[in-house]
Every structure is written in C-alpha cells, then in structure tokens.
Design goal:
The chain has about 240 residues and is α+β, with helices and mostly antiparallel strands. The protein has helices at about 1-15, 20-25, 95-105, 110, 160-170, 175-190; strands at about 30-40, 45-55, 60-65, 70-75, 80-85, 90-95, 115-125, 130-140, 145-155, 190-200, 205-220, 235.
Length: about 240
C-alpha cells in the first residue's frame, strides 16, 4: 500500500514538474515523454526505481508507471482523473479539482520563494548538455533541510514552452497566488529541466527523489489511449474531507 501511494504521488509530482503552455501559446502540441524515477534513502541506498511513460494532447494526459501496472488518465475535458490498477483490473475516479489541489501542493516549496540560484556546475545527461540551478532550498526550525535542484538544458528542441505545456493539464487555468509565483519563477528559468532532484534531510537521514528525462518528442497520439480500458471494476475511494 505504501509503495503504491508513493508511486501515485511520484506520478503527480512528475506530471506537476513537467503542463501550462497550451494556454500561453495556443499551439496544439501532442507529446510523448519517458522519465526514470528513483527514490533513495541515505544511509540505506536505493529504495525504488521505475520508468514512467506519458502521452499528452490537448486537455488529456495518460501516465503509465510500474511497467504499465499503474495508470493515471487525466481528462480535463470531462473534469475527471482515473487511477487504474491493471493487475487487479480496478479503477477509481476523482474530480479533476481534487487532483489539481494535490498537484499544487507539490509546487508549494517551489513557489514559496521567487528566487533561484545558478551554480557553476554542468554535466551531460543523456544527449543533453545541462546547467545546474537550485530552484528552492529551506532549513526548518528543527534543522531539517529541503532542497530542489534542476539540471536544465537549453537545447532548442527542449525549450521551456514544452515544460509549461505539460504543466497546463495538471494545474489548470485557475491561478492562485502560490501557483502564480511558481509560474513566474518558471518563466525566468530558460530551458527544460532534464533532471529534477528533490531531497529532504532530518536527523541524519536523507530521502532523495530524482526524475530524469529519457525521451521527449512530438508525435501523433491515438485518442483511444485516454479511454478507460474494458473489463475494469470501479471502486470508490474516500474524498478529502470524507476521511474520519
């Protein structure tokens, strides 16, 4: 159960850290993306690693994780998000505003401070030359430390409009102050975040998650990918506020 919850939260974060430009550019961009997602605990080493695959077009998005066992389908046109477990042949659905509130929570640290800091570090990730930028960092009253780092490529085929495009379906067009601060920061960082690294350290233990881009390309996408597969049983999950 914990692993599945972690997988689903990483899907939300991966999607959230990846849909806003359609409203900005008016361009119909259909995209396919693959990312490697890993979570590590120090001391202790690797805890989980998987590849996620996403298809994005207009107001629809699908993300497959855990070799296709866990599927999330975002249907902004229907105001619904489907979470599917293909192994158990079950699915649940939530209103898209619930999903978007969760996605916006993932942006809270990134939007808290509009500043960011470039370092002098560079490296090649996959086929892209990248520069390091510290997007957010915070030390709490008890000494806990949080940091988010992006490795950004300014490759002409990976401009930051693509990143904003991917953000649009996730967070929607309603801009509260916190989300607006995030997008203001995003607009000032050139390029696409090929790799994102988020870490949380407390009492000598660090949890670190890394999302690394494997592939991002424009392609035609079969609309049937965004439909619920046949043979599934619907299950009802409590909505936030209904939990006792």
């Amino acid at each position: 159960m914990l692993k599945r919850a972690l997988v689903l939260s990483l899907i939300v974060l991966s999607v959230a850290v990846a849909q806003w430009a359609v409203a900005q550019s008016g361009t119909d961009l259909s995209l396919y993306r693959e990312e490697q997602v890993s979570v590590s605990r120090y001391p202790g080493g690797m805890q989980m690693q998987m590849v996620t695959k996403s298809w994005i077009t207009n107001q629809k998005m699908r993300t497959d994780a855990a070799d296709g066992a866990d599927v999330t389908i975002v249907r902004a046109d229907l105001d619904k998000v489907y979470s599917i477990n293909m192994k158990r042949k079950v699915y649940s659905e939530v209103p898209i505003d619930v999903y978007r509130r969760t996605a916006k929570l993932s942006l809270a640290m990134l939007s808290a401070d509009p500043t960011y800091r470039w370092t002098n570090r560079t490296k090649t990730i996959g086929k892209w030359k990248c520069r390091e930028v510290i997007v957010a960092e915070k030390t709490g009253a008890a000494g806990e430390r949080m940091q988010t780092v992006w490795w950004v490529s300014e490759d002409s085929k990976l401009d930051n409009r693509l990143f904003r495009r991917i953000m649009a379906v996730t967070v929607g067009s309603e801009m509260d102050a916190e989300t607006a601060r995030f997008f203001e920061k995003l607009a000032n960082i050139p390029g696409y975040p090929v790799q994102t690294e988020s870490s949380y350290t407390r009492e000598g233990t660090t949890i670190k998650s890394v999302n690394k881009l494997i592939k991002l390309e424009r392609r035609e996408i079969d609309e049937s990918l965004f439909e619920l597969p046949g043979g599934l049983t619907k299950i009802v999950v409590p909505m936030p506020g209904q939990l006792k």
